[in-house]
Design a protein that fits this description.
The complex is a heterodimer of chains A (348) and B (164). Chain A is α+β, with helices and mostly antiparallel strands and 348 residues long. Chain A folds into two domains: 171 residues, Clam (outer membrane lipoprotein receptor (LolB), chain A); 98 residues, 2-Layer Sandwich (Phosphorylase Kinase, domain 1). Chain A has five helices and 20 strands. The longest helix of chain A has 60 residues. In chain B, helix 2 crosses helix 3. Chain B starts with a helix and ends in a 16-residue tail after the last helix. The chains are: A alpha+beta (348), B mainly alpha (164). The interface between A and B is large, with 66 and 36 residues.
């Protein structure tokens, strides 16, 4: 009886010793594990956020929806209605302004029609292959985006009555804006998007105030051909499409692009009201783009010099050596200026 | 009021009335100016050798243009103690100047300055409607079209309230 307690005590003592060791080891392992997990979570979160972009782009093309959104910029607010339906022959999308003069934009099969000043005009023919850039974004472009922005899932918020996932893309330099998006958790549709400057001030913002997902959506506007849009496509756009624009190697280069901007496009295109084709170069960092338009200055546009802006989009235009050069992009003005003054002709 | 001043100048005002008027002249710049002008008129009428005119404003103006000397230049200062005292005095007067300057930036001025800074952003020139086609051509290739869908096209047709 007298021995037992001691041995028991000894036993428990050893056990205690062992447990301590095991505990220490497991703590160490857990700590290392935690570090690994933390690293994984960090990389994983970045990856998750980038995956959200793909989801958003996919959902935006595949979902029927109709809703009212506000566009807020430069101390102004505009309300618009958007209707998007997917038909066997492609997507139809109508955007109509609800305040101010009547403006309407219809997009189908890569073509854009614009209804302003009581007339409907085709303003752009878009190449079908250029669509869905996020969904077939090459992995290197996505990693580029990851290199230029720190992407984080920042929380769950309610927008237009829906539960959304908020994701923040914080730039790693001051040459681009921050982007924050709110994605409907169930459908993957974008319900709100903000562009923020380096002082965290909202530069522009889109937000749905009402959104109908699926269900019965008015299709009369394209079925009846009331706008004449579809007829327009068949009759005169298709044959002109190739003539409208072509890929070229213009010889124009930009020396001081911010890091991470890759050339997305270099084309020669026709533009409304221009007698000669315009060269357009597009560079993108995955979230924003910079377009450079170069045309010979035979329109005598010498009054256009300077910077102007609308929301997140800035525009800088100036005549240099008899060329009218226009730089447009969703980047801060200083970035635009930097790009503008490094445009040069490197061809023959 | 003007009559009162001229009565005072003629020495025909009672003592208590004169005192209150003098007080008002001291405080109110308009009354003070009247007082000065009346004296000038009187002087001119009497045709003296010298005409009194107010130099105070001009002197004040010239003094404002003068650079502020915070400490006397210590060319004659040899003793350490004196240097210390002088530098102490200088720093004291510097504190005084800073305090005086901060008083000059009164609470009413501060918001005005902030407002001016805010104004810088909204003074931005709006993109002209005739440049809309550039925006349209850009929008097509912008990743924002993929993200926001057609919603971001609203940029390309935005109007200005001053248009019809």
């Amino acid at each position: 009886m007298a021995v037992l307690p001691t041995s028991a005590l000894f036993l428990t003592g050893q056990m205690k010793n062992n447990t301590e060791k095991v505990l220490a080891m497991s703590v160490r392992a857990a700590f290392c594990g935690l570090l690994l997990v933390a690293a994984n979570v960090y990389a994983g979160e970045q990856q998750d956020s980038l995956d959200w972009l793909k989801i958003v782009a996919f959902a935006g093309h595949q979902t029927d929806y109709s809703g009212i959104f506000v566009y807020q910029y430069d101390n102004r607010v505009e309300t618009s209605r958007i209707t998007h339906v997917v038909e066997p022959d492609g997507e139809y999308e109508k955007l109509e302004s609800l305040d101010g003069p009547k403006r309407e934009i219809i997009r189908h099969h890569g073509h854009v029609w614009c209804y302003t000043n009581h007339k409907l005009e085709q303003v752009d023919g878009q190449n079908q292959q250029m669509r869905n850039r996020f969904t077939d974004l090459p992995p290197e472009q996505l990693s580029l985006l990851g290199a230029n922005y720190q992407a984080n899932v920042v929380g769950i918020e309610r927008v237009a009555g829906y539960i959304t996932q908020a994701i923040l893309f914080q730039p790693k330099d001051s040459l681009r804006y921050a982007h924050k998006i709110w994605v409907h958790a169930d459908s993957g549709l974008l319900l709100k998007a903000s562009v923020l400057d380096d002082k965290n001030q909202v530069v522009e913002q889109y937000a749905f105030t009402q959104m109908q997902l699926g269900g019965k959506i008015d299709r009369s506007w394209f079925e009846q051909g009331a706008t004449g849009g579809k007829q327009g496509t068949e009759s005169n756009i298709s044959p002109e499409k190739n003539k409208d624009r072509k890929q070229i190697n213009s010889g124009w280069t930009v020396d001081a692009l911010p890091e991470g901007f890759m050339k997305a496009m270099e084309i020669q295109r026709a533009m409304r009201g221009k007698h000669r084709p315009v060269t357009q170069l597009v560079f993108s960092d995955g979230l924003s783009a910079i377009s450079i338009f170069i045309e010979s200055n035979d329109e005598d546009e010498d009054d256009v010099e300077g910077i102007s802006s609308r929301g997140a989009v800035n525009l800088y235009q100036k005549v240099i050596d008899n060329h009218l050069i226009t730089v447009v992009g969703e980047v801060p003005p200083r970035t635009l200026m930097q790009v503008f003054y490094s445009v040069r002709y490197n061809g023959k | 009021m003007k009559q009162e001043i001229s009565v005072l100048m003629d020495g025909e005002l009672f003592e208590d009335e004169a005192e209150s008027l003098l007080n008002r002249i001291e405080r109110g710049s308009d009354v003070h100016r009247d007082w000065e002008i009346y004296h000038l008129i009187g002087d001119v009428l009497r045709q003296p050798d010298h005409i009194h005119c107010d130099l105070s404003a001009k002197v004040r103006e010239r003094m404002r243009d003068e650079p502020t000397v915070l400490a006397p230049r210590g060319h004659a200062v040899k003793q350490k103690m004196r240097t210390f005292a002088l530098s102490a005095a200088a720093s004291l007067s510097a504190v005084g100047v800073v305090a005086w300057m901060s008083m000059q930036i009164s609470p009413e001025v501060a918001p005005k300055m902030a407002m001016q800074q805010n104004a810088v952003r909204s003074v931005n020139v709006q993109i002209q409607p005739k440049a809309n086609d550039y925006l349209m051509a850009h929008q097509e290739f912008s990743p924002s079209t993929d993200m926001n869908g057609g919603a971001s096209y609203i940029r390309t047709v935005s109007y200005r309230p001053d248009e019809k």
